[in-house]
Amino acid sequence: WADATGRRLPAAMFNLALQVFGTACLVAWKIPLGLHMLAYLLAACDGPLSPLYMAWANPLCGKDKQVRAMTLAMMNAFGNATTTIIQQFAYPVIDAPEYKIGFRTSLGLICGMVGWVFVVRYCEMRVQRSKGEADRQVVEEILPDQSINFQPKKV
Questions:
Q1: Average pLDDT per consecutive 10 residues, the chain (155 residues; last block may be shorter)
Q2: Cis amide prior to 51 (ω within 30 degrees)
Q3: 60/125 Cα distance (integer angstroms)
Q4: How far is CA 28 from its chain centroid?
Q5: What is the DSSP string of the chain?
Q6: I want to staple 102 with a disulfide (CB 3.0 to 4.6 A). Which of 3, 10, 18, 91 is the partner?
């Protein structure tokens, strides 16, 4: 849906909202068993985010293949490194099943990701705006004597 419509922010925010709710319930810990099980399921809903972010980075890198390759490689490496560090230090086996440090760390990182998604959307809108201005300048150079009401496509 996100790729077909180009609306990646709502998809990311929906998924992050599920994760925030689930992780917040796990931080609270003293909750009913049914909610506890639901919380574990929702906190683990990070599967769709990585492909969504990778697909979102693609148009932001423009037509520069080297920038795209480097960006996607860095995103992948940073994600794997962060996951490895968190699993080793925030979720030690001796703290099971109530990972106080791990659940709080995850909740903080998820909330940080919520903020970061808005930063990425702002950058995307800035790129779209500058592309619209570039399109307008090209049209004015080609047809200088014509008065054209050119509106860039809004997404």
A1: 82 96 97 96 92 88 88 93 92 93 96 94 85 63 56 60
A2: no
A3: 10
A4: 25
A5: -HHHH--HHHHHHHHHHHHHHHHHHHHH--S-HHHHHHHHHHHTTTTTHHHHHHHHHHHHTTT-HHHHHHHHHHHHHHHHHHHHHHHHHTS-GGGTT--HHHHHHHHHHHHHHHHHHHHHHHHHHHHHHHHHHHHHHHHHHHSTTS-----PPP-
A6: 91
147, two tokens:
């008065």
> Within 10 Å of residue 106's Cβ, how many Cβ atoms?
22
Q: Cα separation of 108 and 128, whole Å?
A: 31
CA 56 to chain centre: 8
30, 32, 38, 39 alpha-carbon torsion, rounded to 10°? -10
pLDDT of residue 100: 94
pLDDT at 15: 96
CB 34 within 8 A of CB 58: no
What is this structure's pTM?
A: 0.80
